[in-house]
Each structure stands twice: as structure tokens, then as C-alpha cells.
């Protein structure tokens, strides 16, 4: 399988970017061992927008590794998506999906990457129960509800979600060895 690894780690304020670099390396190592063909990019190191469009067209699966910043993706990853997806008009998506002649064609159905998939691997300081426990911060809605607009941006270009990997408590109680082991299991289970 052709897998494109996007590392959205960045050193900023109290984030060092190292947890994300380490999980990105874990994905590279694990998936290479399994015989997958890989391409990768570290967003914060810079990129060529047209090459990134080609990477999306090349891949069967895209993996986003990124920290939770203010309840979602870091601005660097949002900027990357704004730039790359916009340049992908005509190759990654045709249009917004609607048709004057066919009212059954809904908004968001114009993606051209059908049959391909993506996965989120996320690091958060928030503990697991903040996402999953009713009455806690995210009202029991779970991590994928927190990333609803992000998921929709991927669906817009035709991609289908794979199960999300979430590393919690990465500042207050970092357990990098435990998260590496859990992420390897997650990847082996999915791929
Ligand atoms: C602007 C901003 C907004 C934020 N918003 C939120 C938010 O809304 N919700 C939330 O929960 N969190 C939030 N955070 C926290 C953020 O999610 C974490 O800082 C981030 O996930 C940590 O990832 P990192 O790669 O930067 O880790 P790092 O800062 O590099 O590492 C975290 C800890 O793990 C240790 N570590 C990392 N890698 C290794 C390794 N290989 N071996 C041994 N130890 C290691 C580091 O020494 C450090 O103690 C925010 C942070 C910022 C900067």
C-alpha cells in the first residue's frame, strides 16, 4: 500500500514537537517493516504545494500526525490544507458536488479521491476522559466529534476515515514508550 505520512509537529511555546516527531517515526518504522511504500513530509520544514498535490494523488492512505492546539489542528496544518487542497481543484476535487441538473447531488460530493483513506494520529494534553465521559469537557462526544470539520475537509476530497489514534496526557504525564507500543498495535491492526 502507498502511504503518505504528514508530520504536523512544531516547536512553539510549551510544545517541543518531539512527541509528534517520535510518533511519526514510529509510523514510518512500523509501516516500512510491514512492507508498505512510504512518502513523508514535515509541514513545519516547508513544502512545495504542487508536489504535495502529487503526494495526495499518489497515496492510497494519508496519515496526519499532529498536536491538538486550541481544540483542533495547529495553524500550520490548516495552512497546509488550505494551500494544498485549493491547488488540488480539478485533481483532488472537481467542484462542491452540486449540480443544477441533478438535485440529488449534494454539497460535498465532488471529491475525486474516492476509494482512498486517511487517518489521524493526535497528541493532546487533555486526558482520555475529557473526550469520552459524559459531563466532562467534550460532553462525552469523543475525539472524532472534536475533529468534525477536519474530517469533513477530508470527506470533501473523497477520502474515507480510518480509526483515529489519540495519545493523551502528553504534557502532564508523558508515556512515550506506552504510546509508541499502542500506536504500533493500532497501525498493525489497521494495515
Ligand atoms: C498553542 C497551543 C495550544 C494548545 N492547545 C491545547 C488544547 O486545546 N488541548 C490540549 O489538550 N492541549 C493543548 N496544547 C498542548 C499540546 O497538545 C501539546 O503541547 C502537544 O500535543 C505535545 O506534543 P509535542 O510533539 O509538541 O510534544 P513535546 O512538547 O515535544 O513533548 C511532550 C513531553 O514529552 C516528552 N517527550 C517527547 N518526546 C519524547 C521522547 N521521544 N522520549 C522521551 N520523552 C519525550 C517531552 O520531553 C515533554 O516532556 C496546546 C499547546 C500549544 C502550544
UniProtKB/TrEMBL annotation:
InterPro entries to which the protein is assigned, alphabetical: Flavodoxin_fold, Flavoprotein-like_sf, NADPH-QR_MdaB
Cofactor(s) the protein requires to work: FAD
Molecular-function GO terms, alphabetical: oxidoreductase activity
E.C. designation(s): 1.-.-.-
Flavodoxin-like fold domain: residues covered: 1-187
Record Gene3D superfamilies: 3.40.50.360
Keyword match Cell inner membrane: no
Family of the protein in this entry: Belongs to the oxidoreductase MdaB family.
Record's protein name: NAD(P)H-dependent oxidoreductase
Organism, scientific name: Modicisalibacter luteus
Amino acid at each position: 500500500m502507498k502511504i503518505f505520512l504528514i508530520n504536523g509537529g512544531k516547536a512553539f511555546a510549551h510544545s517541543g514537537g518531539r512527541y509528534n516527531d517520535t510518533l511519526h517515526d514510529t509510523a514510518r518504522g512500523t509501516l516500512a517493516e510491514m512492507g508498505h511504500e512510504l512518502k513523508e513530509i514535515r509541514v513545519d520544514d516547508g513544502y512545495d504545494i504542487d508536489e504535495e498535490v502529487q503526494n495526495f494523488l499518489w497515496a492510497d492512505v494519508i496519515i496526519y500526525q499532529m498536536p491538538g492546539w486550541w481544540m483542533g489542528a495547529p495553524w500550520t496544518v490548516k495552512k497546509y490544507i488550505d494551500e494544498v487542497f485549493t491547488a488540488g481543484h480539478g485533481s483532488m476535487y472537481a467542484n462542491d458536488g452540486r449540480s443544477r441538473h441533478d438535485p440529488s447531488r449534494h454539497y460535498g460530493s465532488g471529491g475525486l479521491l474516492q476509494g482512498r483513506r486517511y487517518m489521524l494520529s493526535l497528541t493532546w494534553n487533555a486526558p482520555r476522559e475529557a473526550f469520552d465521559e459524559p459531563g466532562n469537557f467534550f460532553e462525552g462526544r469523543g475525539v472524532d466529534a472534536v475533529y468534525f470539520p477536519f474530517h469533513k475537509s477530508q470527506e470533501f476530497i473523497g477520502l474515507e476515515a480510518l480509526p483515529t489514534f489519540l495519545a493523551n496526557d502528553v504534557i502532564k504525564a508523558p508515556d512515550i514508550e506506552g504510546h509508541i507500543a499502542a500506536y504500533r498495535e493500532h497501525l498493525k491492526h489497521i494495515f
